[in-house]
Amino acid sequence: MTSKKRRVKLEDIARKLNISIATVSRALDENPRVKLSTREKVINAAKTMGYMPNQIAKSLSSGKTNIIGVIIPRYDEPFFIEVCRGIDNYAREHNYKILISSSRNSFEFERENLISFERGLVDGIILSPTHETEMFAHIKNIINKGIPVVLFDNIREEVPGADHVIIEDDKASFEAVEFLIKKGKTRIAFIGGIMEKKVFQNRYKGYIDAMKKYNMPIHDDLILHCKSLDREFEDVEIQSFLKGVSIIPDAIFTCTDNYGLLTMKTLLRMGYNIPDDVAVIGFGDLGLGEVFVPSMTCIAQPSYEMGQKVAELLINQFNESNDVSHRKKVVKLKTQLVLRDST
Amino acid sequence: MTSKKRRVKLEDIARKLNISIATVSRALDENPRVKLSTREKVINAAKTMGYMPNQIAKSLSSGKTNIIGVIIPRYDEPFFIEVCRGIDNYAREHNYKILISSSRNSFEFERENLISFERGLVDGIILSPTHETEMFAHIKNIINKGIPVVLFDNIREEVPGADHVIIEDDKASFEAVEFLIKKGKTRIAFIGGIMEKKVFQNRYKGYIDAMKKYNMPIHDDLILHCKSLDREFEDVEIQSFLKGVSIIPDAIFTCTDNYGLLTMKTLLRMGYNIPDDVAVIGFGDLGLGEVFVPSMTCIAQPSYEMGQKVAELLINQFNESNDVSHRKKVVKLKTQLVLRDST
DNA sequence: TTAAAAAATGTAAACGTTTGTATTATTATA
DNA sequence: TATAATAATACAAACGTTTACATTTTTTAA
After folding, report:
1. pLDDT value at A255 more than 70
2. Do A106 and A83 touch, CB atoms closer than 8 A?
3. CB B293 to CB A268 under 8 A?
4. What tens digit of pLDDT does each residue of B30-77 get?
5. pTM: predicted TM-score of the whole model, two decimal places
6. According to DSSP H, which parts of A168-228 are helical?
7. Nucleic strand D near CB of residue B61 (< 7 Å)
8. Could you tell me which CATH class the domain A169-300 is placed in?
């Protein structure tokens, strides 16, 4: 039990059975070209000797690693985790593993991650660009090298040769705001995120569109574009917004579950009643909205399904001919307004 | 732009510059054995030709993949994500990537994942065993093959040859319950998880120890071992527990943030005042406790640090001599009781 | 019982690196 | 200016597979 236990490899089995490596390899593959009795001998020997194929050698030989690279802007956002869960699930069913890395909301990290994926470790890449990502050269580069790419969530610009999966953000928030208006709310505030993010642009657009359509006055005072990329500062920002607002809103449409929860928290602490004084809507619906008291009305985003879809598109690319020319599918996923006590 | 763009490899550079592959390889390594002028030529050529090293070939040749395999019981638990974030962070700083997979709370999946990691894809493994994991043969097996292993969180049995990182669960919950007692609470309920999980055993132990030490009556009626492994059913279980309880508790010690939040939610809906009627403590402190109204007192677990520690131990193992004999460090991390409005 | 066909196995190149050792080119030394 | 020492480079094996093609063995048919 002390010794240098070398991995057993095909050669060892071959030597033991006095046959060639090729035959061993084929036997373990259940290749009918090798006689049944030999196959059985090999499989037995492999088992008793504790053979485990070397994935790296396999990959080098086959040119496939069966690994999918995933780049998300951050880990501490349930949305991304949920998407990853969806990816993982679909991928595993199709015999792929996923290698996740975070770009930490930084374009530079995103680029680095992408480059590190260029080294042949992954068969394809799933990427959710950061808000800083304005240039797409690094992505196009990867695609030009023939590596399949699927983008999701925050897509500022369609990248030729990649597939895209997005949510109908504008439509979703339009509907949410419309719902508030129809409830009779007239002073509807908006809390969104950095406008560098396409998703926040779209959610803002939906808000504005709905307000305009119903001829509601739009007060700049009632609009906050949260700049923080960090839980703690989001809280600070929202608090000071709510405390400093000149007109008291009777509803607040919020672009994130977390914004929604923070908003409700602050409102409650300030002594407002939800939903009677102020109604609140969140975006995402990743579990917490249901637990809060009062529970939070949310736009439910199909995050898990998004992950599955994204993985499906990528794996389809693997199986397509390498004809890059006519890819670029854009899949839009639908949301749903889930009504709860906060409205 | 149509064509089969083959990856450029060392050979291509070598041919172009009319030198040997070995020299190219060494030049790119900045190996002083190759003349400075040659090095520069090679590096330039590599850049202009768009050379990217092939990670797989490198790994095969070097016997190192620089990938760490991580197995967690589930994705949708902020604790595990936070640990992964810690691992990822430390790993990246030391030039490792992480490959996460979920055992989905199933021993069988855990085993499968472990086996798939035996195929040489990862240099070492970080594992948090599921509650179903009673046998450790599969882990010992891996260790016997010389693959470094670090275990964390839910460790039922110390595995020789592996490092362990745990939290002082019993101590933490003892302190929390003691705190409640000193606050004058007398009917302290306990809500924990499946007793197959060591962490829940320990947290229960801490509760019992504290109650005994202060001669508090222990009512079985006030104790719930939640069996669900699923958010939705946790809610159902806790609700029916709270609604069916014969004595109204004046405090509830809870073994999870989520249990705590669900408890608070149900109590509030039932019309109780927190903390005046009932105080509540959660375990974990992964962000939500702060947002809830009232905010939740929690035992703060150093999850991120746990991840870092675990990664550190693994990477240390990589650098040690392969002398398996005297490994098996057990690192215990401290918790902290964070006081908020729910107590 | 032998030639042809089919089945089983073997040989060797390939995947893209790294690296120990051998070889060649350059410089220093006498 | 020949030679020893050193610097620079090249050769080839190794990492553990897969697989096209070659070879050997077995079976079939005449």
Report:
1. yes
2. no
3. yes
4. 999 999 999 999 999 999 999 999 999 999 999 999 999 999 999 989
5. 0.95
6. 169-182, 198-213
7. yes
8. alpha beta
Q: Is the CB of residue B261 less than 8 Å from the CB of residue B285?
A: no
CB atoms within 10 A of CB B99: 21
Q: Are A55 and B88 within 8 A, CB to CB?
A: no
Beta-carbon contacts of A321 under 8 Å, excluding residues fewer than 6 positions away, are none
Pairing between β-strand A124-127 and β-strand A67-72 as defined by DSSP bridges: parallel
- Sheet containing B124-127: give its strands across: B97-102, B67-72, B124-127, B149-152, B163-167, B330-333
The first and second tokens of residue A94, run together, are: 């199709």
Q: Are B120 and A54 in contact (CB < 8 Å)?
A: yes
Is A121 in CB contact (< 8 Å) with chain B? Answer: yes
Angle at A171 between CA A165 and CA A176, to 5 degrees: 125
Q: Look up residue B225 and give its two tokens.
A: 């071992």
Note the pLDDT of residue B321: 66
Tokens of B280: 């509540």
B89 alpha-carbon distance from chain centroid = 13
The single-letter DSSP state of residue B301 is P
Residue A182 contacts B, CB cutoff 8 Å: no
The whole-angstrom separation of Cα B223 and Cα B290 is: 25
Give alpha helix (H) positions in B122-230. 137-144, 169-182, 198-213
Please tell me the class of the B10-53 domain: mainly alpha
Strand D at less than 7 A from CB of B64? no
The ranges of chain B with pLDDT < 50 are 1-4
- Please name the fold of domain B64-166+304-332: Rossmann fold (3.40.50)
Chain centroid to CA A130: 12
Q: What is the Cα–Cα distance from A250 to A222, expressed in whole angstroms? A: 11
- Cα(B261)–Cα(B240) distance, rounded to whole angstroms? 15
Q: What is the pLDDT of residue A2?
A: 36
Question: Helices A10-17 and A36-49: crossing angle, nearest 10°?
Answer: 120
DSSP annotation of A160 reads T
Tokens representing B153 are 């969180």
List the helix and strand counts (H, then E) for chain B.
13, 12
> Could you give the 3-state DSSP secondary structure of residue A111?
helix
Q: Strands A297-300, A336-338: parallel, antiparallel or unpaired by DSSP?
A: antiparallel
Provide the Cα torsion A205, A211, A212, A213; round to 10°.
100
Same topology, domains B10-53 and B64-166+304-332? Answer is no
Cβ of A56 within 8 Å of Cβ of B121? The answer is yes
> How do the domains of chain A map onto residue ranges?
10-53, 63-166+304-332, 169-300
CATH class given for the domain over A63-166+304-332: alpha beta
Per-residue model confidence as pLDDT tens digits over A207-239:
999 999 999 999 999 999 999 988 889 999 999
> Which H or E run contains A257?
helix A257-270
Where are any strands of DSSP class E within chain B? 67-72, 97-102, 124-127, 149-152, 163-167, 188-192, 223-225, 251-254, 279-284, 297-300, 330-333, 336-338
Q: Say how far apart CA B56 and CA A57 lie, in whole Å.
A: 8
pLDDT tens track for B14-33: 999 999 999 999 999 999 99
Tell me the per-residue pLDDT of A157-214, one tens digit each, with 9 for 90 and over: 889 999 999 999 999 999 999 999 999 999 999 999 999 999 999 999 999 999 999 9
- Are B101 and A68 in contact, with CB atoms under 8 Å apart? no
Decide: A57 and B60 in contact? Cβ < 8 Å.
Answer: yes
Residue A70: name the closest of A143, A13, A5, A123 by CA.
Answer: A123
**Tokens encoding B42:** 């090679």
pLDDT tens digits along A51-60: 999 999 999 9
Of B75, B85, B99, the CB nearest to A99: B99
Q: What distance in Å separates the CA atoms of residue A49 and residue A39, rounded to the nearest whole number?
A: 15
CA distance A200 to A169: 8
- Across the interface, which of B56, B82, B293 has its CB nearest the CB of A269? B293
